[in-house]
Amino acid sequence: MSQSLPEKLTAPDIDLLSPMLNQEGDSWTADYQGLTLKTALQPIYSLSHKRIIGYEALVRPFDTDNAAVLPIHLFQLPASNAENLLLDRLCRYLHIRNYTGFHDQLNWLFLNVSPQVVTSGTQADSFFGQLLKKTGLPPHRIVIEIVEQPTDDADKLRETVAYHKKLGCLTAIDDFGAGHSNFERIWNLSPDIVKLDRKLLTRATEDDKARQILNGIVSLLHQSGCLVLLEGVETRDQALMAVDAGVDFVQGFYFRRPSIRLEEISSGAADLDVLLNEYKSQSLVTRDPTHQLIHTFSDDFREAITRLNKGVDMQQACLKLLAHPAVSRCYLVDDRGVQIEDTLVSEAIAGSLDPRFRPLESTTSADWYRQQYLRKAIAQPELLQVTTPYLCITGAYMCVTLSLGYYCQGGLRVLCCDLIANSINNVMQQG
Question: Which residue ranges does UniProt annotate as crossing the membrane (predicted)?
């Protein structure tokens, strides 16, 4: 830049930025240090609505020969906090100018803002309210993304986020799960939307445990009152994983790449019907074994209960169940959720017990009432209950529990049986 800027820009500087913008037909560009800046938009889709609900604005710089320059090189150009602040404002000004003339006058515009820029100076971002007034873009169509970067002024960051909310904008935390974007930031800022870091998706693609963690994070964020967006979706398998994780919104090359051809951005939209139908078909085969498990184990469960009511001891009554290769444990619980005898461990798993978890093996008088499968079995006697996979506390492995409440001598008891989750597919194939 040829201009010398003060170290802190505390006043709105729209008049300083306006001469740096140029209108070319229906679109706008900006000049910055010999580069031409253009707006690229990448659609964001709602899986439930099966359509675009917003666009992330990204800057695309070009040199004097109209050759593309990497955005990272653009953001290395500012030599001071003042220049960094001006570049950030210039990009937002450019994107909003382009979006006000965009054909879609319903959906959100996602704008990236660095925490360092947000917290610079006194009322450093009061500029944004003036910008919205000048361009006429309603604030409820803006989602302010706080990009994952450290900031030493958490109070100022919280104040500035509150300022944008007061304007009427939505707020989002970007790159959640990486660096400084964690639940502490969720609690402090109370964002409307959380964008998950794509590394979570990459790890989930390679590791089943990471996939379970991804699903758990989505659930926790929903309980925190946040909508969840998964970015960086690049393949069909990752798209199906996003559907299974329960995220609300998706973004990535699989659906649509960012484009500076704004007039063409909504053409050739992703066919989410095909994706969701594939997920439904896949779920029936591999994701919901409940009916198959009930069919496979119902007779053995009822035979065991019949024998228990005749006074046969637990070991003999559960012989068939314990002989099944997928079964790891059987145990009996009373109507208060307290285990009556010690757990019976199948011979197949007895030799592979991890000695590191030996302190957890004895479960006599253990109280399982907190477990949903136990409460459901007590509430619905004679109906076989099946859980989704969860971590078994007595062996630290993923299991599925079958439970059946039955009456014995006027009281209610529950017979429980743990299956090794990794063996479920084999059970279904045998069925």
Answer: none
